[in-house]
Write a structure and sequence with these properties.
This protein has 413 residues and is of the alpha/beta class. The protein is built from 18 helices and 14 strands. Helix 7 packs parallel to helix 9, helix 9 packs across helix 10 and helix 11 crosses helix 16.
Length: 413
């Protein structure tokens, strides 16, 4: 087996798994993992090496060529609209119209289809020997699928974003930890290479792989962070941007620790309501966070706290750019894109001292204990002129580029 410290000859073709991206078509803003899969797809679709794409559907697998893969990218960026559902999709996805339309669209774009037991045969028939399979979306990582892909003669590379479902099962939906453990066991058994975005993610994941009996070769390559161009013209009406405001960005789920920020703002309003800065909570609602959802639903008119879901990337960038600071009291992260993006815009960051944040941003943020609401309240209360002066002295921080990531990874895949 070739180790990841030495470059390989380019594969005869690459097969990218787009199962996750297809499942997300038509659902609005893409998550961080979705964006990574789209970045890989966009890069590989423009490369010289022949490209195919694999999608697991409710009834088997579909295989796309480069043109079909490019159409999935266009659908993901809303350049074109999803087609209607077909009979199979209507049968298997009665309660999910978007998933039905997405899988039907993938079938219409396919150059081949097969039931799951015939996956290896389909790949051998359509892909040249010496091809590589790349999975960066944490979907379709079953022992059955990976074994079939290996049986077809493909080298398997998997990007493991994090091990949060195993390290922090309390922050995931019921049953997800067990599902994720099965996925990681399949990776441990079948992967020729595991890609990590940080050394922290590698350390955590490899500890689990060791307990599963095999630690695959790995490589660390920081994810690219393309910062959107701020679009202030599209900011929703009714936001008072003349008053100081802070932002927090991310799905509203337990590990993001929005409850701490609501406690901080409650405390500030109790102490000096006239001087309370605004808090813009940017992001959609996630899961298992009913207490926080209830507190958000109970916000009175004129509250300094505003929930802002579903904003376009340019608007998000504009709001972050104008903020006093980005607040990031997260309890666990795989990469943590929001503070990196804020730093690229020269915006101060107040964050929990996670190992991954220290790895990606060093001493750029102000670090505060995510369990100590008093320290957050005091820091934000005292931000004022000192914080703005600090911002004026602060240069934007260079962020990783996708070009560097792919130069490091694709020599091995």
């Amino acid at each position: 087996m070739v180790t990841p410290c030495s470059a390989r000859l380019a594969p005869a073709s690459r097969l990218i798994d787009l199962t996750r991206l297809v499942s997300r078509l038509g659902r609005g803003a893409l998550t961080g993992v979705d964006r990574v899969e789209l970045a890989y797809l966009t890069h590989l679709a423009a490369a010289e090496t022949p490209l195919f794409a694999l999608v697991r559907s409710a009834v088997g697998h579909v295989l796309l060529d480069r043109d079909g893969a490019r159409m999935i990218a266009r659908l993901a960026t809303a350049d074109v609209r999803l087609g209607p559902p077909d009979l199979l999709s209507r049968m298997f996805w009665r309660g999910d119209t978007l998933r039905a339309r997405a899988e039907a669209t993938a079938r219409r774009l396919a150059i081949a289809r097969c039931p799951r037991p015939l996956l290896a045969r389909m790949l051998r028939r359509h892909l040249p020997p010496g091809s590589s399979y790349v999975n960066v979306g944490h979907a379709n990582l079953s022992a059955r699928s990976l074994a079939a892909i290996r049986a077809a003669g493909l080298r398997v590379a998997v990007l493991v974003h994090d091990a949060i479902p195993l390290d922090y099962p309390q922050f995931t939906r019921p049953g997800i930890s067990q599902v994720f453990a099965r996925k990681m066991a399949a990776v441990a058994t079948h992967a020729d290479l595991v890609i990590y975005s940080t050394a922290d993610a590698r350390t955590r994941a490899e500890a689990h792989f060791a307990r599963m009996g095999r630690v695959p070769p790995g490589v660390v390559a920081a994810l690219g962070v393309p910062v959107p161009q701020p679009d202030a013209a599209a900011i929703p009406p009714g936001l008072d941007l003349a008053r100081p405001y802070f932002v927090t960005l991310g799905t509203i789920e337990p590990r993001k620790n929005h409850a701490l920020l609501l406690d901080v703002w409650d405390g500030m309003q109790a102490d000096a309501p006239a001087a309370v800065p605004q808090l813009f909570i940017i992001g959609g609602r996630g899961w298992a966070n009913e207490d926080v959802f209830g507190r958000l639903d109970a916000l009175p008119p004129g509250s300094p706290v505003r929930e802002l879901p579903g904003l376009p990337d340019g608007v998000v960038a504009a709001l972050v750019q104008g903020a006093e600071a980005l607040l990031f009291p997260s309890l666990a992260e795989g990469y943590g894109l929001p503070p990196v993006e804020a730093a690229a815009l020269g915006v101060p960051v107040i964050a929990a001292p996670l190992a991954v944040t220290r790895e990606t941003l060093g001493d750029y943020p102000v670090y505060l204990d995510p369990a100590d609401s008093y320290s957050w309240l005091e820091t934000i209360n005292n931000w004022g002129q000192q914080g703005r002066a600090d911002r004026n002295r602060r240069a934007s921080r260079a962020v990783p580029r996708w070009e560097d990531h792919f130069n490091r990874v694709l020599n091995l895949v």
